[in-house]
Amino acid sequence: MLAAMLSVQFGGAFAATLIPEIGPVGTVALRLTIATIILVPFARPGLHDRRTGRLHTRSDWLRVVAFAATLGVMNTSFYFSLRTLPIGVAVTIEFIGPMTMAALGSRSWRDGLAVLLAGAGVVGVSGALDADWSQVSLPGIGFALGAGAAWALYAKASQAVGARWESLRGLTWAMMICSVVILPFGIAEAGTQLIRPRHLLVGAVVALMSSALPYSLEMYALRRLSTKAYGILTGGEPAVAALAGLLVLGQGLHPLQIAGMICVISASVLILGRDSHHHPTRAAAT
């Protein structure tokens, strides 16, 4: 999970350099298509389950399609948010999705406080407190929240696929489906810009760091973790994203935005403390 976190956030920072040139949909299309090409030789996806020799069922394929849908919505929404938000801000807002998933269903006072802290954190990182509302990107915040909702569903879908498909075969099928659907829209948006050597090179780096490597690592991790534990472990994502934004894009954050980020991370720590106290072996049991 830690390796996936570092990989995906620095990959996202490199992706932000592509968005002004080929657009968010073009960036998603290039990233997923190249990542699929990278994964296919390793995963060798087929129609049969190698463990049983039987064809995968209709239920198996529905899980893959649902997984593909979450991948497409999550990535496209996030890249649209990066057009107007620094990556650290976008990821902090997006993180509300998995954090809410981690707190869902509990009536603990810790979770109530965590929700309040997270809400305050989102307000802080959005810039709403120290900026004119005309300068606050409401569409960017909306896209980041949409990406967060898809992120929470992604964790569930990844677990469902990992339970029925061996190795990375289900993930590879999902990425193939997603690429086939999104690529025509990417071509319509960016045209021949997609195949410029520089765009292909950066796209390959983004595909490896933001898709092929982290999704593969998370697929294995989610076979051993509950979705609640996954939501908690992603608590460091905003800080890693802010570091990537600073080192790759030169994006600094204001003190109020840093305070907001600390609030969101603290919210995840509160949930971790409650979850560890009451369910010390849950992740291992899952």
Describe this structure as you would to a colleague.
With 286 residues, this protein is an all-alpha fold. It has one domain. The chain has twelve helices and no strands. Helix 2 (58-81) runs antiparallel to helix 6 (138-164) and helix 9 (227-233) runs antiparallel to helix 11. The protein is globular, with a radius of gyration of 19 Å.
Name the descriptors.
mainly alpha; transmembrane helix; EamA_dom; single chain; disordered C terminus; 12 helices; 286 residues; AA-Vitamin_Transporters
Rg (C-alpha, Å): 19 Å
Residue runs with pLDDT of under 50 for 5 or more positions: 275-286
Tally of alpha and pi helices: 12
Gap between N and C termini: 16 Å
Secondary-structure-derived class = mainly alpha
Order of helices and strands: HHHHHHHHHHHH
Largest sheet: none
Helix content: over 70%
Mean pLDDT: 81
Shape: globular
- How much β-strand is present in the residues? under 5%
Q: Tell me which oligomeric state these chains represent.
A: single chain
Number of domains: 1
Task: Give me the count of strands.
Answer: 0
